[in-house]
Design a protein that fits this description.
The chain has about 240 residues and is α+β, with helices and mostly antiparallel strands. Helices cover about 55% and strands about 15% of the residues. It contains eight helices and six strands. α5 packs antiparallel against α6 and α5 packs parallel to α8. It is elongated and about 95 Å long. The N and C termini lie far apart (about 120 Å). About 10% of the residues have low confidence.
């Protein structure tokens, strides 16, 4: 009989132990996290327990108190915010510099007395202020009499139609039709930007070229290129006979 009671007692203890084990193993981590979020009073009621909890260091090594782990996390977040802030300041400074260069170019362009000077100022600004390796342009329609500028040379109907269909600046690896021939060293160029010149109509195109394949790529922003195209259009159109 005594052995039977012992077996029953052992069986009860084993069942109780299994039940407890199932309860622990069945605990769901998200549920625990949600409970703690819903019951912030837990951290005040069991502050001494929290102080005794140690967790792995996020960068390896010894375990650290959970409070110290939180400090490490906050420090890393502060560092991330500082890096983002520096990046924003850098972008802001760069944009200010670009705006200053565009403004300086605007003043020089509209102080130019003729088309030849206007184009020379435009080319110089692009090369010196914006580090564009090679620049070319072609204008068509009615041109000034006794014109000798290469920018007024004959162009194909394909390039005129191409420029007319551009809704904005094109950036990429393709040189449109005969445009590669416009550059001094067109064979070495691997990326291009084509900016349509237009007022009431399209009357030309400004072409930029670079041997760097990533200088003008399809995914780049074109805000300043669009403004430059508008500026160049108005500056050059002053010296072209009205249609």
């Amino acid at each position: 009989m005594e052995n039977e009671w012992a077996n029953v007692s052992d069986g009860a203890n084993e069942a109780s132990e299994k039940k407890t084990t199932r309860g622990i193993s069945g605990m769901d981590a998200p549920a625990v996290a949600e409970y703690l979020k819903q019951h912030p009073q837990f951290f005040e009621d069991y502050a001494d327990v929290i102080a005794e909890i140690f967790v792995p260091h996020p960068h390896g090594g010894h375990a650290i108190p959970i409070a110290e782990r939180q400090i490490v996390t906050l420090r890393e977040k502060v560092q991330e915010l500082e890096a983002k802030f520096k990046e924003l300041v850098s972008y802001g400074t760069e944009n200010d510099q670009i705006s200053e260069k565009v403004h300086r170019s605007t003043l020089a362009l509209f102080a130019s007395p003729d088309l030849e000077t206007t184009l020379a100022v435009l080319y110089h600004s692009l090369k010196e202020d914006f580090a564009v390796p090679q620049v070319a342009a072609r204008l068509w329609g009615r041109v000034p009499e006794q014109s000798y500028l290469q920018e007024l040379a004959a162009t194909s109907s394909e390039i005129r139609q191409y420029a007319d269909q551009l809704g904005g600046p094109y950036c990429g690896p393709v040189a449109a039709f005969e445009s590669r021939e416009w550059f001094e060293d067109g064979d070495v160029l691997q990326s291009f930007a084509f900016l349509p010149l237009r007022t009431a109509r399209t009357f030309g195109v400004l072409a930029l070229g670079s041997p760097d394949p990533q200088r003008f790529h399809p995914g780049m922003g074109t805000l300043y290129q669009t403004r430059l195209a508008e500026l160049a259009s108005v500056a050059t159109a002053r010296f072209l006979p009205p249609s």
